[in-house]
Specification:
Length: about 160
């Protein structure tokens, strides 16, 4: 295989899928197997999608995100859930991406409809351990998610 080019039509298709998805996000994997040593994907995410604060305890699993379209907020937390840093990222802005080392709690929030980013991290995929979730934040689907997401959004606004 000689690879393939990434086109605007792929981005539009991902955005449409994210808008229709229950989790309000959609992935297009550039890796072909969950066991691949490198995971690279395009992700479309809508503002009401929730990514629970988490970390990657595996020392090989740094995570890199580069925003291609829209605006994405990134929050870094200490182990008790206090926000240490909050940044807004956008293409062409001063901050357009981040690289989070293993063991650092983080979350992202789409700040505009149609936000798309590239995500890269080491594979293979592993189901997160309980210790990798920020226990101070509600789990996806819990009743407290909308209020917590609003709190994160407010932190990015200030």
């Amino acid at each position: 295989m000689s690879g393939f080019f990434l086109h605007a039509a792929l981005i539009e298709s991902l955005i449409d899928k994210a808008r229709a998805a229950p989790r309000r996000r959609s992935h297009h994997n550039l890796h072909t197997d969950p066991a691949a040593p490198a995971h690279r994907m395009l992700v479309a995410m809508e503002p009401d999608s929730y990514v629970r604060p988490h970390c990657h305890l595996d020392p090989a699993k740094a995570e890199t995100i580069i925003v291609l379209r829209g605006r994405l907020g990134t929050l870094i937390f200490d182990a008790a859930g206090q926000v240490l840093d909050a940044r807004v990222m956008a293409p062409g802005a001063d901050v357009f991406g981040y690289d989070v080392p293993p063991g650092v709690f983080h979350s992202i929030v789409a700040l505009e409809s149609g936000t798309v980013f590239v995500e890269a991290k080491a594979g293979p995929y592993a189901v997160p351990l309980e210790a990798e979730w920020g226990g101070w934040a509600p789990a996806e689907g819990e009743a407290g998610v909308p209020a917590y997401l609003a709190l994160l959004r407010n932190r990015l606004a200030g």
